[in-house]
């Protein structure tokens, strides 16, 4: 993809993943502006809908979307849209996917089984994607080739390790996606 230095390019990127994987935190660590967050407290109304077993300390959840912006260069700005993680909001995912160039799919290696419906949605929307394996201190450090195999990814799907709380590693995962997108565009 040739980027004319005299023309600014705004690119819509989705940050997706299952419930409680760290999408809001990732956008917060990356955004150069105060991120827009549509989080609400988890209430008794979510009982029977949201599985909190993997995130027992989670107190809020995204109910519409998160939004942030990251300028990569004078000619390339990424608009980051985070999707809600619950199945009941998948119509929102469809709306948010319109006009998106690609998606960074965040996965928790301790809950990979929750990533399959997310990958199905991303693929059904025809989005190019990369995987960001959210890993942080105190969790098992699975080899990326084992994560790739467990998720049944094609060999050309990029997989990067990140800690969504850390700007540097989150940015590297996002750059991995952008490089993959640029290679797809020729």
Brief digest:
The protein is of the alpha/beta class.
Distance between the termini: 5 Å
Main sheet: strand order: 2-3-4-1-5-6-7
pLDDT < 50 stretches: none
CA radius of gyration is 16 Å
- Into which percentage range does the β-strand content fall? 25-35%
Structural class: alpha/beta
Describe the main β-sheet briefly. Answer: 7 strands, mixed
Please state the overall shape, judged from the principal axes of the Cα atoms: globular
The arrangement of helices and strands along the chain is EHEEEHEHEHEH
Count of beta strands: 7
Mean pLDDT: 84
Element layout with pairings:
Elements lengths: L8 E9 L5 H8 L5 E6 L18 E14 L2 E7 L7 H8 L4 E6 L8 H9 L3 E7 L9 H7 L8 E4 L4 H19 L1
Parallel strand pairs: 1-4, 1-5, 5-6, 6-7
Antiparallel strand pairs: 2-3, 3-4
